[in-house]
Design brief:
- This protein is an all-alpha fold.
- It has a single domain (50-227), classed as Orthogonal Bundle (Urease accessory protein UreF).
- It is 65% helix and 0% strand.
- It has eleven helices and no strands.
Length: 237
């Protein structure tokens, strides 16, 4: 194997492994503590078993994530200079206080994690690239923080969006297992359904023009608002 091929393979492997690391549910950003309204859907009787939980998550992937956070991840990964404007959009479009607190807390935790492991210098002008989202006075929301962290790997915007979507799917599947509740076999089958749908959702998100991006999921917003005062709950959203 010649030197050029060896170098190319090494860079590709490093990017892949870093994306896997970022997408891991073990990353200490608090994703395990949120259900994004799923727990409230269980309380309301809308999600009752493996089939209804899987249907709910697939719908949320296509109707919610692909049109909002996933599109933001792809856009920031492709052009980090847009991070500030897209970060403002994420904050403005959270439909409940729980959902806004989630994206802010996870973004803040990801930034702190980057500092702790030396994942790029989050405070340098080179990383800010005019966006301002890494300054001490403005910490990015989670999809923006994820995209900026992943962009350091040199991976494509599409691959970064795929990693983000799979990480979301793993967290949400675990939320379903705990809140319905379900067994691990059910969780793996739901994850398989989501994995089969992720490429199409990512392609739609990557192709979405700015004027088509949206965060409009009325039932999810209602459930999230109800969850804020739900008597008994496991999750923070």
């Amino acid at each position: 194997m010649d030197t050029m091929n060896t170098a190319t393979t090494t860079i590709t492997d490093a990017a892949l492994l870093r994306l896997v690391w970022l997408a891991s549910p073990a990353l200490p950003v608090g994703g395990f503590s949120y259900s994004e309204g799923l727990e409230a859907a269980v309380e309301a009787g809308l999600v009752r078993d493996e089939q209804s939980a899987g249907d709910w998550l697939v719908d949320q992937l296509h109707l919610g994530l692909a049109r909002s956070d996933l599109a933001v991840v792809a856009a920031v990964a492709a052009d980090p200079g847009r991070a500030e404007a897209l970060d403002a959009w994420v904050r403005q479009t959270r439909e409940t206080s729980e959902l806004r607190l989630q994206t802010e807390q996870m973004g803040r935790s990801l930034l702190e994690w980057r500092k702790s492991v030396g994942w790029g210098d989050a405070g340098t002008p080179a990383m800010r690239e005019g966006a301002g989202v890494h300054s001490v006075h403005h910490q990015p929301t989670y999809p923006v923080a994820f995209a900026l962290a992943a962009a350091i790997t040199g991976a494509s915007a599409r691959h970064i969006a795929l990693a983000f979507a799979f990480g979301w799917s793993e967290n949400m599947t675990q939320s379903a297992i705990k809140s319905v509740p379900l067994g691990q076999g059910s969780g793996q089958r739901m994850l398989a359904r989501l994995a089969a749908d992720i490429p199409a959702a990512v392609d739609a998100a990557c192709a979405l023009p700015d004027d088509a991006r949206q965060a409009f999921t009325p039932m999810l917003a209602i459930l999230s608002a109800q969850h804020e005062t739900q008597y008994s709950r496991l999750f923070r959203s």
